TrEMBL record:
Residues 220-241 are annotated as: Disordered. PANTHER family: ABC TRANSPORTER DOMAIN-CONTAINING PROTEIN (PTHR19229:SF127), ATP-BINDING CASSETTE TRANSPORTER SUBFAMILY A ABCA (PTHR19229). This is ABC-2 type transporter transmembrane domain-containing protein. It is a multi-pass membrane protein. Residues 220-231 have a biased composition (Low complexity). The chain crosses the membrane at residues 28-56, 68-86, 92-114, 173-194. InterPro entries: ABC2_TM, ABCA. It is found in: Membrane. Keywords: Membrane, Transmembrane, Transmembrane helix. Its main location: membrane.
Length: 241
């Protein structure tokens, strides 16, 4: 939804119309981000409320604060990732098809490919962290750990996922949260960069041209200063004569 909305505005030239009316890039991205984050929070709160009302242990037994923080972090990451992907598309249908394939395909891949790595105790944790750099795998790890904590409540005398459990290196929740926050910031910066320059090459070219223009400006200023100093010196010599 986020991806198609942004690409739709690009395809229908709505961004150009907004710029013509004085809306800059930074206010546009700020307004868009706030809109999508509010929409995501409403969806998130509804999801948690209905899950609790219908008695799902996944929601009731785990700490609501922990759930909200992790879901909110992933929603923010999802929005920034959609912003980044929107810079690669100019057609709404193409973006919608790729988006649906990404959502359903990543879920299937995570269940059949990533889950065995989590459950295998002989797999290096570093390798799992590397796989969690892919955002859907981070979400799958969150859901997996929450479901495991809720299922253990009925088996042993313990509570679900609490804040103190984040310090447990076995569940890997702290590393997942760190990855999501870092990727969220990185994707936002890349989105702003690509939206402004169009590509990495054009951005580098503009930076090089800017440096050359500044150097040329400094040289012209220094030459002008030298000429003015020479003229002042000549004028002072003539006055002494």
């Amino acid at each position: 939804v986020i991806l198609t909305n942004i690409v739709y505005e690009k395809q229908k030239k709505l961004r150009i119309m907004m710029k013509m009316h004085g809306l800059g890039d930074l206010p546009y991205w700020t307004i868009s981000y706030c809109y999508f984050i509010l929409l995501s929070m409403l969806y998130l709160l509804s999801f948690m409320v209905f899950g609790t009302v219908f008695g799902f242990t996944f929601f009731r037994l785990n700490s609501y604060g922990v759930q909200f923080v992790f879901y909110f972090a992933y929603m923010s990451l999802q929005i920034s990732f959609a912003f980044l992907m929107a810079t690669c598309f100019s057609n709404v249908r193409t973006a919608a098809v790729i988006g649906y394939f990404y959502v359903f395909g990543s879920g299937l891949i995570a269940d059949y490919f990533f889950k065995p790595y989590i459950e295998d105790i002989f797999i290096s944790r570093s390798w799992i962290i590397l796989l969690e750099l892919f955002p859907p795998f981070s979400l799958y790890r969150i859901v997996y750990e929450f479901s495991q904590s809720a299922s253990l409540v009925s088996q042993i005398d313990r509570t679900g996922m609490q804040w103190s459990d984040l310090n447990d290196p076995k569940n890997g929740m702290t590393s997942v949260l760190t990855i999501m926050v870092l990727e969220w910031i990185l994707f936002l910066l890349l989105s702003l960069y690509l939206d402004h320059f169009g590509s990495f090459q054009s951005g580098i070219r503009r930076a090089v041209l800017l440096l050359h223009s500044r150097r040329a400006g400094n040289r012209s200023q220094s030459s002008q200063q030298q000429t003015t100093q020479i003229q002042e010196f000549k004028a002072s010599v003539e006055m002494e004569r």
